[in-house]
Amino acid sequence: MDTRSGSQCSVAPEAVLNNGDLVLPPRISRVNGWSLPLHYFQVVTWAVFLGLSSATFGIFIPLLPHVWKYIAYVVTGGIFFFHLVVHLIASCIDPADFNVRLMKNYSQPMPIFDRSKHAHVIQNQFCHLCKVTVNKKTKHCISCNKCVSGFDHHCKWINNCVGSRNYWFFFSTVASATAGMLCLITILLYILVQYFVDPGVLRTDPNYEDVKNTNTWLLFLPLFPVQVQTLIVVIIGMVVLLLDLLGLVQLGQLLIFHIYLKAKKLTTFEYLIKTRKEESSKHQAARKDPCTQMEEGFLQQGDGALGSSAQGDKAKNSLLTFKCLYHHSTPLPSDKSSSEQEADDEPSLSSLGVNARDSLQIYRRPSPFSSTVHPEGGSTAQEADGVWSLSSLGVNARDSLQIYRRPSPFSSTVHPEGGSTAQETDDAPSLSSLGPQQERRQPMKTDSAESEA
Predict the structure, then answer these.
(1) Lesser CB count within 10 Å: N end or C end of the chain?
(2) DSSP output for 106-152
(3) Which residue ranges have biased composition labelled Basic and acidic residues (predicted)?
(4) Which pTM value belongs to this model?
C-alpha cells in the first residue's frame, strides 16, 4: 500500500514495487474478501482452522474424562463457532464508503490514476477514481481499488479491507482465535500430563472396552472410531501443539497491538503515518550535527574495532581535533564568555595523539604576526607576544611552525617614486633550524626567488 502524506493522505492506486515485483491495482474493484483472486494467506488461514478444529473435536477432546469432556465441548465449541461467524462476516462485508456502495458499479473497470492531472487520489474529500464525495477518514485502497470508509488496513488473512463497517468483526475474529488457541493448549497439556501419570484416565470412552492393547488408541470418537498406534497420536499432538504456539504468538501480538490502538484512538494507518514522521524527524535532526555523525562512525564502535589498531588511534585523534576546531569555529552564545565555552567543550590535549595535539596547538595560538594600523594609514607587522616555545611541539609541527613564523626571505619595499625592489631580509631562517624535509625544499625556493629578482 502506497501512503501519501499531506493535507489529504490517501492510498494511491498506482503501480508499486513489492519485493522487487511490479504490482498493479486490479482494474475491477473488489467487493469483499471472497472476490477473486483469493490470497494464499486466506487459504492458509482456513486450512489451519479446519485442521485444528478436526484435531480438537475428533481426537483430543474425546480423550478427556466424562465431566471435562462435556465442559470442553461447550466452551471450546462455543469459541470456535463464534470465531467462524465473525470471521465470515469480516470477510463477506463490503467496507466501502456509503457513496461508493450507493453509486458505484463494481462490474465496470476502474481508470488508471494520472498523477499529472491530480496530486492525490482524494482531494477535498472527492475521489478522482470512484468519482464520489467521501468522508474525512476515507482512503482509497490499492488492493481493493475502492474508497474504504474509516480505513484501518488491508488484511491479507481475510483478503478484505478493514474499515469502520467491519473493524469490530475483525477485532472479534482475532480475539476469538486467541481464546481458542488458549483452550486447545490447555487440553493438550492436560492430556500430556495424564499420559505420564495415569493413561487409563484417557481411555474412559465405552469404545475402549473392546481394545485390549494399551498401545492402541481410537480417533474420531464416538462416531467413526479409527485404531492407531501411540506414535501416530504423539506426532499429531506435536504438530497441533506447534501450530497452536505459533498462532498464539502471532495472534497475541496482533490483539495487544489493536488494544493499544484503541486506547490511543488511532487506526493502523494513522499509527504508521505517525511513526514514519517521527523517524523522519529524527534522521533530519541527526544530519544537522556533523560531530554526531562522526562519533557514530568512529567513537561509538567497540574498543576492539578502533582502540587496538594504529589506524583506530589516528581516526580517534582526527575526530577529537575536528570536534575542537568545530567548537572553536561555532558562534558562542551571548550569555557565555569565550573562555568558558572553550573550557566546557574542547577535549583535553592529553587525550589526543602526537600529530593531532601539535595541529591543535598551532590552531589555538594566535598568528605570530599581528597587523597594527598607524594613524598615517600604513601598517607594519609585529610579532605577537603569545608565541609558544618550539620545544613544546613535535618534530613535524615545529618544522612547519618555523617556516610559518619567519617572514619571506625577500620582502617588498615600496619607494616614494612608486617602484618596488626586493631585498633579502636579515632574519631569513637558517637551513640548520629546519627539518630534513624542509631543508631540502628551501634551496629550491631561494634559487627561484633570486632568478625572479
Answers:
(1) C
(2) TTSBPPPP-TTT-SSSEETTEETTTTEE--TT-EEETTTTEEETT--
(3) 438-453
(4) 0.61
Q: Residue 37 has which C-alpha cell?
A: 483472486
Of 105-109, 152-156, 264-268, 402-406, where does mean pLDDT reach its minimum? 402-406
For the beta carbon of residue 111, count every other beta carbon within 10 angstroms. Answer: 12
- Residue 18's beta-bridge partner residues? 21
In the prediction, which pLDDT does 315 show?
A: 58
Q: Are strands 160-162 and 122-123 parallel, antiparallel or unpaired?
A: unpaired
> For the chain, how many structural domains are there in total?
1
Task: Name beta bridge partners: 147.
Answer: 140
Contact indicator for 5, 12 with CB cutoff of 8 Å: no
**Least confident window among 111-125, 280-294, 309-323:** 309-323
Is there a domain that residue 20 lies in?
A: no
Q: How many CB atoms lie within 10 A of CB 141?
A: 26
Question: Within 13 Å of residue 443, how many CA atoms lie on the same side as its CB?
Answer: 5
Please give the radius of gyration of the chain, using alpha carbons only, rounded to the nearest integer: 41
Burial of 256 (0-12, 13-18, 19+ CB in 10 A): exposed
Per-residue pLDDT, averaged over 430-448, amounts to: 46
Distance, in Å, from the CA atom of 371 to the CA atom of 381, rounded to the nearest integer, reads 5
Q: Is residue 188 part of a domain?
A: yes
Residue 246 amino acid letter:
L
The answer to whether the beta carbons of residues 253 and 246 sit under 8 Å apart is: no
In whole angstroms, how far apart are CA 276 and each of 74, 143, 270, 279, 331? 46, 21, 10, 5, 33
Domain, as residue range, for 198: 43-94+162-204+215-265
Angle at 174 between CA 102 and CA 219, to 5 degrees: 120
Q: Which residues is 226 bridged to in the sheet?
A: 219
Position 62 scores a pLDDT of 92
Task: Write the pLDDT tens digit of every residue in 368-417.
Answer: 444 444 444 444 444 434 444 445 555 555 555 554 455 544 444 444 44
The CA–CA distances, whole Å, from 267 to 146, 249, 273, 320 equal 18, 22, 10, 47
Active site residues: 155
Q: How many whole angstroms separate alpha carbon 397 and alpha carbon 393?
A: 6
The answer to the question of residue 51 being in a domain is yes
Residue 418 covered by a domain = no
Name the region of 84 (left: φ>0; alpha: ψ -120 to 50; beta: rest): alpha
CB 435 within 8 A of CB 399: yes
All 3 cell numbers of residue 264?
Answer: 490511543
pLDDT at 354 over 80: no
For 350, the grid coordinates are: 592529553
